[in-house]
Design brief:
By secondary structure, this protein is mostly beta strands. A hairpin with a 5-residue loop joins β7 and β8. The longest helix is centred in the middle third of the chain and has 5 residues. It is globular and about 55 Å long.
Length: 220
């Protein structure tokens, strides 16, 4: 049972076609803006990109952290990594990067899961039952679990998103950021039991419902 709230962002798990498009650098597509590959992003001071973080694109074509609510802007995809050249001229590949790091870098290329059909797993900041299938959620607005939040392991280690889904689904006929399509197959933390419907913090399978590439469909 998922009795502990420990969200991990939007982790890709499978593609409905049966093709393994959830594998890093197989299912991802490169993202860059402009001809110089410099500053193709929009981050506020202190912000970072983390693996499995939902991302959006600004009106000027820059990669940004995804909005919490569908009422604000659509979701472009899910961040999986970035490559760039450091100020010392070294080409670097990482699963996370801060604004401070990127501001000092050049030749930046992001790698994004952006296929609209991809299915992800994410943790709800509350309980979800089978009635959630077909319903939609926005992302959590709770500090520590928003689309902007994440953590880095050690010094210079990998960094992971802690984005969660909001505790409750949006209403019928309302547009949310993701749509529930099934139950997550994750093993629950810390019990080691299978995740189940009705758990305190249910892990669900979702697709991006408010997608930059396809027409949105509201919650049922």
């Amino acid at each position: 049972m998922s009795t502990t709230f420990k969200p991990f962002g939007m982790k890709p798990v499978y593609h409905p076609s049966g093709l393994d498009r959830s594998v890093p650098f197989v299912g991802t597509n490169s993202f860059n803006a402009g001809t110089t590959f410099t500053a193709p992003y929009s981050l506020s001071s202190g912000q970072s990109f983390y693996q499995y973080q939902p991302v959006g694109v600004t009106a000027s074509g820059q990669l940004a952290i995804a909005a919490t609510s569908a009422a604000t802007s659509p979701v472009y995809g899910v961040f999986d990594g970035v490559e760039y050249t450091t100020s010392e001229g070294r080409r670097t590949l990482g699963k996370n990067a801060s604004k401070l790091t990127l501001d000092a870098a050049t030749q930046i290329v992001f790698w994004i899961f952006q296929d609209p059909a991809l299915v992800y797993e994410a943790q709800v900041e509350g309980s979800a039952t089978t009635a959630a299938i077909g319903s939609q959620y926005n992302f959590s607005a709770t500090s520590g679990y928003t689309t902007a939040d994440g953590y880095v392991i050690g010094t210079g280690g990998a960094g992971f998103s802690t984005t969660a889904l909001a505790a409750t689904e949006v209403g019928t006929g309302v547009q949310g950021q993701v749509r529930v399509v099934g139950l997550g197959r994750e093993v629950a933390f810390p019990t080691g039991e299978l995740n189940a419907w009705g758990d305190a913090y249910t892990i669900v399978q979702v697709q991006i419902a408010n997608n930059s590439f396809v027409a949105p469909k509201t919650s049922i």
